[in-house]
Amino acid sequence: MNERFDAESTTFSTSRKVLIVVENLPVPLDRRVWLEATTLKDAGYEVSVICPTGRGWDKLYEEIDGIRIWRHPMPPEAHSGALAYAREYGAAIWNWFRLASKVRREVGFDVIHGCNPPDLVFLLAWWHRIRGVRFLFDHHDVCPELFEAKFGKRGMLWRLMLMLERMTFASASVSIATNGSFRDIAIRRGKMKPEDVFVVRSAPQVEKFRPGPGNPDYRKGAGTVLGYVGVIGQQEGMDLLVAAVDHLVNKMGRTDIHSVIVGFGPHLEEVKADVARRGLADHFTFTGPLYGDDLLDALNVIDIGVAPDPKNTMNDISTMNKIMEYMTLEKPSVQFDLTEGKVSAGDAALCATNNDPVDFAEKIAQLMDDPEKGKEMGQTGRRRVMRELSWAHSVPPLLAAYERIFVKSGHPASVKNVTKVVQEAEV
């Protein structure tokens, strides 16, 4: 490979080529993947992406900001049963192989950057390994724990998830984890060497995610506005949030409250039905998915961010993007007592008794009664993001992970340059 690494700017005179594969969201809608892709592009890499269509991103091929994106029809999301998973992931795998061959012919790639779920991109990496392609595993979700949280059981499919996770780690030259808990899993359960695992936290770009007045229309005249942004699915605890608002309104008499729910997901209609059944329709606005300035218009107007994800084996060790977004916009938040949730939020969140909607409601009421405390918590959260947790702090470990994989593959790179990037990642 003909390349020259510039130690001062951490870019390359001729770019290395990366293929990112993601199954569960289109790009650039997947914000983590888009930040990774654009960061690599800015560092001199040539970046291609394979992802599904959907949510308005329906072109089968386009180039955005220098990133080449190949999309395939979105397979139906599996909700239960081995057959449903086989249909969804079988269609995805076929499209990965088909489109990767096209990318290989037209652009080429040195690294396959595979994002889970599912833990199946290693199959594509195996096929291309004989051509000298290395595999970097981007660990978004702990799939065995995700399965258990989604279906409330273990069994044969859960054991299969464990096996596929182990094969994924065994196939990866390098992996990147979203937090320290995921890094521990890569080392302990995935048997990866510690020097091959890098923590690349998901975080907003503070340059674009700025506090502001928001759109007052979302307030609906309420004194306090709650905000939620994210997936509306089975494991996100939306039933607990609705129960908490029900307790606030109908048990505590806190009728001067409105909830703005931003997002989409397979259980949206069920959540709306629950709201209607409890007589809370006037206290909720469901915006659907929002992006860019529209998202900021909604989130900037809220007073309290809510993260009702229940405590389970998955959520306890997962970093919730919404917590990071509330903090970036100077919003205090309420969540349950989750290990990684507390690592992220620190003093910017109140933690309710796990999976207890009544205590969740009482924590919200505390912030309603003490807006000065909420303001102080919000400012603390933004300072924490700016000093430690913004995307700018994830760039050095991401680039260090790529330095590591290219060094392991035998491509030219000086020890001095690699050491510099790794040292930046540890600062």
UniProtKB/TrEMBL annotation:
<feature type="domain" description="Glycosyltransferase subfamily 4-like N-terminal">
    <location>
        <begin position="32"/>
        <end position="200"/>
    </location>
</feature>
<dbReference type="InterPro" id="IPR028098">
    <property type="entry name" value="Glyco_trans_4-like_N"/>
</dbReference>
<dbReference type="Pfam" id="PF13692">
    <property type="entry name" value="Glyco_trans_1_4"/>
</dbReference>
<dbReference type="InterPro" id="IPR050194">
    <property type="entry name" value="Glycosyltransferase_grp1"/>
</dbReference>
<protein>
    <submittedName>
        <fullName>Glycosyltransferase family 4 protein</fullName>
    </submittedName>
</protein>
<dbReference type="Pfam" id="PF13579">
    <property type="entry name" value="Glyco_trans_4_4"/>
</dbReference>
